[in-house]
Structure formats: C-alpha cells, structure tokens
Amino acid sequence: MVKSNITLGATTRAGEGCGCGRHAVADPELDARAIPPTIRHGAIFGALDSVQPGYGVVIVAPHDPVPLIAQVAERFDGAFSVEYLERGPEAWRIRFGRSA
C-alpha cells in the first residue's frame, strides 16, 4: 500500500469548493520531508505546476528552504508569493500562492 504525502492544510478560502457556499477549500499540503532528497525539488516543482492562479500549496520542509524559494522565483518568473507559516526547528511550513 502506498501512503500519500499530500494532506489538506489549514489555509482555506470560505465559499469555495463544491459550489454550495458552505464548504471551504484548503490548500493542499505536501510534506516534502517524506520525499527522497534526490527527487524532492522535482516533486515540488511538479506540484507547483498544477497550482491554478488564485490558489496555493503548503510545502512542509525539513529545513529552511531558501534555495528552493530562489529556484521557484526563477523557474516560475515570480508567479508565486511565499509566506512562512512555521519556522522550524522540526519543520518549516511555507505557503506558495500563485498570482491570478
């Protein structure tokens, strides 16, 4: 059995979701700590490729991902905002939001 590393995060937007207006949509959360280091950034770039404008994804990293943030800014030409939700020492949670 394969265990998923994607869970729902705490960042939500009320009134979105199924269309009934009663459900909030949470940004997906990708726990990169469970991804082997040799493919970690590639997996994160793949996740970011799928984020639609106006939405985001929360990445959980094992260290402050300063190099990753620089790579995302360069690779996606500044299309993502970056917000630290948690700053270690066990995990860093960063929300990448795609501009509309």
Question: What this model shows, in words?
Answer:
With 100 residues, this protein is an alpha+beta fold. It has a single domain (6-98), classed as Translation Initiation Factor IF3. Helices cover 20% and strands 36% of the residues. It has 2 helices and 5 strands. The chain has helices at residues 40-49, 66-75, and strands at 6-13, 25-31, 56-61, 80-87, 92-98. Strands 1-2-3-5-4 form a 5-stranded mixed sheet, covered by helices on one side. The longest helix is centred in the middle third of the chain and has 10 residues, at 40-49. It starts with 5 loop residues before the first strand and ends with a strand. The model is unreliable at 1-15 (pLDDT under 50).
* CATH C-level class: Alpha Beta
- Note the run of SSEs as H and E: EEHEHEE
Taking all residues together, what is the mean pLDDT?
A: 84
List the uncertain runs.
Answer: 1-15
Helix content: 10-25%
The assigned CATH architecture is 2-Layer Sandwich
What Rg, in angstroms, do the CA atoms define?
A: 14 Å
Q: Got a strand count? A: 5
Q: Assign the structural class, choosing from mainly alpha, mainly beta, alpha/beta, alpha+beta, or little secondary structure.
A: alpha+beta
